[in-house]
Design goal:
Elements (H helix, E strand, L loop, with lengths): L2 H16 L9 E11 L5 E10 L1 H7 L13 H14 L7 E5 L2 E3 L5 E8 L2 E14 L3 E6 L6 E5 L5 E4 L6 E5 L3 H5 L6 H5 L13 E6 L2
Length: 214
């Protein structure tokens, strides 16, 4: 795990343990919505994410941030924290993995990233542009943490949208099954501590997005 991410998230683990929270993975929970952004020619230019963190993480992450009004954080107030987020996630490929017609497709670094804070929930917004626009009959995108430190779940309603897609394209969304999540219970913390960004263990908890276009 890279140093900035360890610093940012490691302190949260200490906080959870101190207040008697469960010590098994995951330690952070994210509710996500995503958009696949299309160009006029029908190619996909990138993935736009909004990740809402759990209330405990939101409270911890915003501690010590100076604001004009207590408990009210503007986008400008949260800008340094947003920078830490995107910098820290680089080594983990932003937990987002894509294949076009079965072939791995690379992203550039995030753009248009910011944090907002509403109803005591911190939400990270960012766009991952593809290195080259993707025009494929099938595009698959998976979101997961290889180390399962962070648990991702799709929002209940409209978790994924196609923005500007050709009308004949069809979207399929698959959430992790209850069986996948339950299977985690018998594994101890030492196992999770051995995982790193190159591990693929967390793939079994992937949120899967597939788009097919004729």
């Amino acid at each position: 795990m890279n140093p900035s991410l360890r610093t940012f998230l490691g302190s949260l683990v200490a906080l959870l343990v101190a207040i008697g929270a469960a010590q098994a993975h995951p330690h952070v929970w994210v509710t996500m919505t995503s958009e696949l952004v299309y160009a006029p020619d029908g190619s996909v230019t990138g993935v736009r994410h909004a990740w809402a963190f759990d209330d405990m993480f939101s409270a911890f992450a915003t501690q010590g941030i100076e604001t004009k009004q207590k408990g009210v954080f503007t986008r400008e107030d949260l800008a340094p924290l947003a920078q830490v987020n995107v910098d820290s996630l680089k080594d983990f490929d932003y937990f987002t993995y894509a294949k076009a017609n079965g072939k791995k497709t690379e992203f550039n670094g995030p753009t248009d990233y910011w944090l907002d804070y509403k109803d005591e929930v911190l939400t990270l917004h960012f766009t991952l542009p593809f290195k080259a626009p993707v025009k494929a009959q099938r595009l698959d995108v998976e979101v997961y943490d290889p180390t399962y430190f962070v648990d991702f779940s799709m929002a209940e309603n409209d978790p994924v949208k196609l923005v500007g897609a050709p009308g004949q394209c069809k979207l399929t969304v698959v959430r992790p099954t209850d069986a996948n999540v339950a299977s985690n219970g018998s594994i101890n913390e030492q196992f999770f501590n051995s995982l790193d960004a190159s591990s693929n263990w967390g793939a079994q908890f992937a949120n899967k997005i597939s788009v097919t276009c004729p």
